[in-house]
Write a structure and sequence with these properties.
It is a single chain. The protein is an alpha/beta fold. The protein has 3 domains: 111 residues, Chitobiase, domain 2; 341 residues, TIM Barrel (Alpha-Beta Barrel); 119 residues, Alpha-glucuronidase, C-terminal domain (Alpha-d-glucuronidase, C-terminal Domain, Alpha-Beta Complex), CATH 3.90.1330.10. 35% of the residues lie in helices and 12% in strands. The protein has an 8-stranded parallel β-barrel. α12 crosses α13 and α13 packs across α14. The longest helix is centred in the last third of the chain and has 33 residues. It binds 4-O-methyl-alpha-D-glucopyranuronic acid (GCV). 4-O-methyl-alpha-D-glucopyranuronic acid binds next to loops.
């Protein structure tokens, strides 16, 4: 299937054409070849210029730089790009091409003086692609990795993807779903080594390490053993031999990603072992091969009884993993979802992120928008991710405990469940590509301003096109607050259709086994997570625990996450909770209608195919936001019998 070039289209910088720009380098190798090819393509698009030999641009190494860092200097038509390694040089080349576009200047006028090192070592995407070609929580077509239990080797598409990832500094991908099903268990066998070697050839020169999700019970499924007990020496030996075989065939493989004891997946609990027993056994198996184990912390009881108000799913990650701090091997990273629940539009930062002091961690984000509009609603998530990175966990009395600091250093980083599929535009909604671009940029530099990232992405994608840039920038920046307005109120989450997770269904999860309740009654709503309830709030450092425990100091956007509150409780705005619910839902639907009206004005300035896709998505969002508004407002009207203070229509 044809595909767009996304932010690597290199649209012409108008009025700045030149015949040639020349390059000199003594460096050689595959990564440098990719860097040169990128410059050639970029200059052809931006300036109509050929890349020739000469000294306009020099590529070199400077071992004093971070291995994935670069230094870019440009003035008077001359530019030097130095990298701490060949990949650093490649990143510098992408930085040059990006900066040229955002500056929008002629080559001779362009100046730069920038030195960068990545904020995080691990900057990874997780694909939830199944080997039948479907994608769990995929909203942009089918997998471009798999189909009918085979690995697809679509070199142009894979190469385009590797370029996109490298251009924003992503350095790892897991290609198969963490729910390892069917043929996927066999990815670590000779059935698939040949095809995976082709993947290594494509991704490695771009600095992107390949990872595989594995089935913890593989010794049983593949090895015919009767146990997968991590403390059984025969199981450990099976994995050690397997690792030797895998790395002998797939040299350069990054490692394995594991979802164990979660939502029906096998894991160490089956054998009375803990999560560290499982992770460390695998870590020891892969260590001689230089392998890395990324172990997910999304472990909770998904067979809960809603009648039991003592169990709190939010507590689970911390309760299971915190006692194990310091016991994980050095080549293990614990991958922790950004919040304690599951990618809701608003959640507190997971206390486990701050709690663990002696364990490598990566924060897991989701750009697939499972609960934030599924790439049919616009929801630019970087403002939300940036808030999370900026959050101070207060867990290092003498040091920096902002999330962004806690994920620095070896073995740590950021991961996103990705939003790509084989749709022509990669991400279904054209604006969802801003989340892929943005996640990469933010993981490389956690201090970047989400508004700046959005501006870059727009300029790179649409060229210098003022009406488009201005309008879409405004929409992107308002999109997450808007989505939150017409979604579940004040941090309580989960008012969605079960399984599908799209569209409003206030009680969809209320009486189920999944542990995600809002406990709305005739007089109030929210979960008591203070000491009178589950006391989840004491999983945080004392300052935060106190803040969350007290209704006066609890941030209002999370009030119902932490407290069961009466509908007539008056918020700082002077409105009751009930009126706040009504107002935000009316406003959210109005915002969505305005987005549509604004997008329609862009018709003359957009490529017709892009416009048609955008118009259809925004029309749907506008209508669907009304559905959200009406379902939620009606629900609370029926619970309370109290109407809108401004007399607006609430259905009965
Ligand atoms: C891959 C949520 C999603 C599941 C997903 C799971 C996870 O529960 O709905 O589709 O499974 O998270 O993160 O493992």
């Amino acid at each position: 299937m044809a595909f767009t070039k996304c932010w690597l289209a290199y649209p012409e910088i108008r009025g700045c054409r030149c015949d040639a720009i020349s390059l000199h380098t003594e460096l050689t190798g595959e990564t440098i070849d990719r860097a040169k090819a990128e410059l050639a393509e970029g200059f052809k698009g931006l300036y109509g210029a050929a890349l020739t030999e000469g000294d306009d641009i020099t590529l070199a190494l400077d071992m004093a730089l971070d291995p994935e860092g670069y230094r870019l200097k440009a003035a008077d038509g001359h530019c030097t790009i130095e990298g701490g390694s060949e990949v650093g040089v490649l990143y510098g080349v992408f930085a040059l091409l990006r900066n040229l576009q955002t500056a929008g200047k002629a080559w001779a006028q362009f100046t730069a003086d920038e030195e960068k090192a990545p904020s995080n070592r691990l900057r990874m995407l997780n694909h939830w692609d199944n080997m039948d070609g479907s994608i769990e929580r995929g909203y942009s077509g089918d997998s471009f990795f798999f189909k009918d239990s085979e690995i697809l080797i679509d070199v142009p598409r894979l190469t385009a993807y590797a370029r996109m990832l490298a251009s924003v500094g992503i350095n790892g991908i897991t290609i198969n779903n963490v729910n390892v099903k069917d043929a996927a268990s066999w990815l670590i066998t000779d059935r698939y080594f040949g095809a995976l070697q082709e993947y290594l050839k494509i991704f490695t020169p771009y600095g992107v390490k390949l990872y595989l999700s594995i089935n913890f019970a593989a010794p049983m499924e593949l090895g015919g053993m009767d146990s997968a007990d991590p403390c059984d020496p025969a199981v450990a030996k099976w994995w050690a031999d397997k690792a030797q075989e895998v790395w002998a065939n797939l040299p350069g493989l990054g490692g394995f990603l594991v979802k164990a004891d979660s939502e029906g997946r096998p894991g160490p609990f089956t054998y009375g072992r803990n999560q560290a027993d499982g992770a460390n056994m695998l870590a020891d198996a892969v260590a001689p091969c230089g392998g890395h184990i990324v172990w997910r912390c999304f472990v909770y009881n998904c067979q809960q009884d809603w009648r039991n108000t003592k169990i709190d799913r939010a507590r689970a990650g911390y309760d299971y993993f915190m006692p194990l701090d310091g016991t994980f091997r050095d080549n293990v990273t614990l991958q922790i979802k950004n919040g304690p629940m599951d990618f809701q539009v608003r959640e507190p930062v997971s206390p486990l992120i701050g709690g663990l002091q002696h364990t490598h961690i990566a924060v897991e984000f989701q750009i697939a928008q499972e609960y934030t509009g599924q790439q049919r609603h616009v929801c630019y998530l970087m403002p939300w991710f940036r808030q999370i990175l900026d959050f101070d966990m207060h867990t290092r009395p003498n040091g920096d405990a902002h999330v962004r600091a806690l994920i620095q250093g070896a073995g740590n980083g950021m991961v996103a469940v990705t939003n790509t599929g084989n749709d022509e535009n990669w991400t279904g909604h054209d604006l969802a590509a801003a989340n892929l671009y943005g996640f990469g940029r933010l993981s490389y530099d956690t201090t970047l301003d989400p508004a700046v990232i959005a501006g870059e992405w727009l300029r790179l994608t649409f060229g210098n096109n003022e009406p488009v840039e201005k309008t879409l920038h405004r929409i992107l920046m308002q999109s997450w607050p808007t989505y939150e307005k017409y979604n579940a109120p004040l941090g309580v989450g989960w008012m969605v259709n079960p399984n599908y997770h799209y569209g409003p269904n206030v009680d969809g999860y209320e009486y189920s086994r999944w542990g995600c309740y809002h406990r709305a009654s005739f007089d109030g709503i929210g979960i008591d997570r203070s000491p009178t309830g589950s006391d989840y709030c004491h999983q945080y450092a004392p300052e935060l625990a106190e803040m969350y425990a007290n209704v006066e100091t609890c941030p209002e956007e999370l009030l119902l996450f932490f407290h069961h509150m009466p509908y007539n409780y008056v918020l700082k705005s002077g409105k009751t909770i009930l009126q706040h619910i009504y107002d935000t839902h009316f406003e959210g639907a109005e915002d969505a209608a305005r987005f549509y009206d604004e997008v329609v004005t862009l018709k003359p300035y957009l490529d017709p195919a892009v416009y048609a896709r955008l118009e259809a998505r925004f029309a749907h969002q506008k209508e669907h936001a009304c559905e959200w508004r009406d379902v939620i407002n009606t629900y609370f009207y029926r619970k309370t019998g109290i109407g809108d203070a401004h007399g607006r229509k609430i259905y009965e």
